[in-house]
C-alpha cells in the first residue's frame, strides 16, 4: 500500500467546517464551532492542520497558559487513522513550542490507543480529574510532556502523582 503524503500547515478559519465535521465523527462530546473560533483567535496558540489528498485529515489545537502548553484537542478523521497523522501533528507542535516546553493534556483512561501514542511521544500520566467528561462522567487522565517525563520521571510536573492507566 502506498502511503499518501501529509502536509502540515497552520490551521485557518477556512478549515473550521472540516474541523467540526472530523470532531463530530471522532468524539462523543464534540466542540462547537464557536469553541474552535475562540481557540484560533488566541494570539499565542499553536494550531495545525494535516492535509492529505487535498482534504483536512486531522488537526491539533494547543493553547499557552503562562509557561505551559495545553493540548486542547487533537483528532484525525476516522477514515485516515493509523497512518501517523496524529504523531506528525504533535511533533510539529513540539517543533513550534520547543522540545523542552512543558505540555499537558487530558485523555480518557479508556482511550488506550491515545494514551499509547502520548506515551510514545514522552508524556507520562501525572494525575486525574474526577468526572471530567460530561457524556458519561468518566475521569480524565492528566498527562504531561516535560524534560523529566521524557526521561521517565515526574520531577518537573506540578502536583504530580502516579496515575492509573487504562479503563
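^ Assign residues to that structure.
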Amino acid at each position: 500500500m502506498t502511503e499518501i503524503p501529509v502536509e502540515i500547515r497552520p490551521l485557518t478559519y477556512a478549515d473550521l467546517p472540516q474541523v467540526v465535521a472530523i470532531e463530530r465523527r471522532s468524539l462523543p462530546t464534540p466542540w462547537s464551532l464557536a469553541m474552535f473560533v475562540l481557540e484560533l483567535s488566541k494570539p499565542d496558540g499553536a494550531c495545525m492542520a494535516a492535509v492529505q489528498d487535498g482534504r483536512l485529515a486531522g488537526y491539533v489545537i494547543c493553547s499557552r497558559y503562562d509557561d505551559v502548553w495545553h493540548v486542547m484537542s487533537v483528532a484525525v478523521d476516522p477514515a485516515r487513522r493509523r497512518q501517523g497523522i496524529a504523531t506528525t501533528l504533535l511533533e510539529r507542535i513540539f517543533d513550534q513550542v520547543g522540545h523542552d516546553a512543558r505540555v499537558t493534556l487530558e485523555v480518557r483512561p479508556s482511550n488506550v490507543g491515545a494514551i499509547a501514542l502520548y506515551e510514545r511521544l514522552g508524556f507520562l500520566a501525572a494525575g486525574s480529574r474526577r468526572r471530567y467528561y460530561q457524556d458519561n462522567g468518566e475521569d480524565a487522565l492528566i498527562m504531561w510532556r516535560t524534560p523529566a517525563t521524557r526521561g521517565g520521571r515526574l520531577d518537573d510536573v506540578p502536583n504530580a502523582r502516579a496515575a492509573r492507566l487504562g479503563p
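Strands lie at 7-10, 46-52, 55-65, 68-76, 102-107, 124-129, 140-145.
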